[in-house]
């Protein structure tokens, strides 16, 4: 498989945000379930536990291996089935994530965004999001998620795209 870098840099609320999109031949409710239900998330990235109505959940990236610790993600906005905003701060940085879903003509587009808090780290983070979103596409289309290979196809292969992206001005 040959991966493609899909991130673009935009300015949103006086912040640089890298946005990556994927389109699915599925209704918005189905894609929402794929990015919010623990069992569906587990197929491509990780899982969560807790009570989302409390404003936070414990998330663990199972795609990284069994020894990855859980992290607390604060739910800053949740408007099913169209918008989810999350925040976390951990040993790897600050994570402000926004998922926006729109449906048109029987297809749903997921726009995944992350605020760029650490420009130097993002040249590694960007390829990771392409990797995870391609795993989501594989999971939702019945393809082999394990065939999406980070080391072979995403990093360092896509690193240059994100370094160049962050070197220029945002849209």
Description:
The protein is α+β, with helices and mostly antiparallel strands. The protein has a domain at 8-32 and 76-167: Alpha-D-Glucose-1,6-Bisphosphate, Chain A, domain 4 (2-Layer Sandwich). 29% of the residues lie in helices and 36% in strands. It is built from 5 helices and 8 strands. The protein has helices at residues 28-36, 38-41, 119-141, 150-154, 159-167; strands at residues 8-12, 15-24, 47-49, 56-60, 71-79, 83-90, 93-104, 107-115. It has an 8-stranded antiparallel sheet with strand order 1-2-8-7-6-5-4-3. Strand 5 (71-79) and strand 6 (83-90) form a beta hairpin. Helix 3 packs across helix 5 (159-167).
Radius of gyration: 15 Å
Number of continuous helical runs: 5
Roughly what fraction of the amino acids lie in strands? Answer: 35-45%
Q: N- to C-terminal separation?
A: 30 Å
Element-by-element helix/strand order = EEHHEEEEEEHHH
Q: Determine the fraction of residues in helical runs and give it as a percent range.
A: 25-40%
Shape: globular
- Residue windows where pLDDT falls under 50 for at least 5 positions: none
Structural class: alpha+beta
CATH class of one domain: Alpha Beta
The count of β-strands is: 8
Query: CATH superfamily assignment of one domain?
Result: START domain
The residue-averaged pLDDT reads 94
Numbering strands along the chain, what is their spatial order in the largest sheet?
Answer: 1-2-8-7-6-5-4-3
